[in-house]
Amino acid sequence: SGHVQLPPPQNVTLLSKDFDIILTWTPGEGSPPDVTYTVRYESQERMDKWIKVPYCKNIRSTSCNLTCVLPNFFVKVRARVKAVSGRFQSPWVESQFKEYYLDVELAPPVLNVNVKKNLIHVNASFPLATCVESFSWMYDLNLWEAGSKDKKQYEGIFRKNTVTIDTTALRGNYCLSARSSFQSIDFKRSKFSQPVCVLLNHKG
């Protein structure tokens, strides 16, 4: 065909980060400044049926979060993207396949530490999209005296559960840190969160 084509998007990658599945790409070399992108995906349940993603049509951004449009978290999906500018379009460029359940990468939880007399209550909030809240996300919690290598470990706590720690015998500056975990085919874990430190039983 004799019409001009736009340079196709490059480095098209379907990846998981922070509990999400995201398609990312970079502009093709020599793309016009007004270029936008349109994304579709297909699932292995229905091959050759490319499904539109309404919020990733003619977007300027070079990524599209697909987490909550996935029809099934236990089936492989792939996505494709094309460049659009005025009347011109690039060819579609396809990503590799990913499956949420197998490929999800976790982010550390954010700890909320509530110090009471002789007790600490700790709970964790997870930066999750609503559509994946029903998975059995868990967390592991570490408690240690600041400066010490000796950590008390609490493992396999369900996402919504609070850990109550008796602090009667603890005195001084104590730190807490947590990581998310998830039982897939193998055990997945995030990095540990930045420590939160609290002063316990301080005789002022």
Can you put this structure into words, describing what you see?
- This protein has 204 residues and is an all-beta fold.
- The protein is built from 1 helix and 16 strands.
- It has one helix at residues 100-103, and strands at 10-17, 20-26, 36-43, 51-52, 63-65, 77-85, 88-89, 93-94, 110-116, 119-125, 138-145, 152-158, 163-166, 172-183, 187-189, 196-200.
- Strands 3, 4, 6, 7 and 8 form a 5-stranded antiparallel beta sheet that branches. Strands 11, 12, 14, 15 and 16 form a 5-stranded antiparallel beta sheet that branches. The chain has a 3-stranded antiparallel beta sheet with strand order 1-2-5, with no helix packed on it.
- A hairpin with a 2-residue loop joins strand 9 and strand 10.
- The longest helix is centred in the middle third of the chain and has 4 residues, at 100-103.
- The radius of gyration is 23 Å and the shape is elongated.
User: Would you report the number of β strands?
Assistant: 16
The percentage helix is: under 10%
Shape: elongated
Helices and strands, in N-to-C order? EEEEEEEEHEEEEEEEE
Major sheet? 5 strands, antiparallel
Q: Average pLDDT across residues? A: 94
The value of Rg in angstroms is 23 Å
What is the count of helical runs?
1
Spans where pLDDT lies below 50 across 5 or more residues: none
Per DSSP, what share of the residues sits in E-state strands of 2 or more residues?
over 45%
Furnish the topology, listing elements before pairings.
Layout lengths: L9 E8 L2 E7 L9 E8 L7 E2 L10 E3 L11 E9 L2 E2 L3 E2 L5 H4 L6 E7 L2 E7 L12 E8 L6 E7 L4 E4 L5 E12 L3 E3 L6 E5 L4
Antiparallel strand pairs: 1-2, 2-5, 3-4, 3-6, 6-7, 6-8, 9-10, 10-13, 11-12, 11-14, 14-15, 14-16
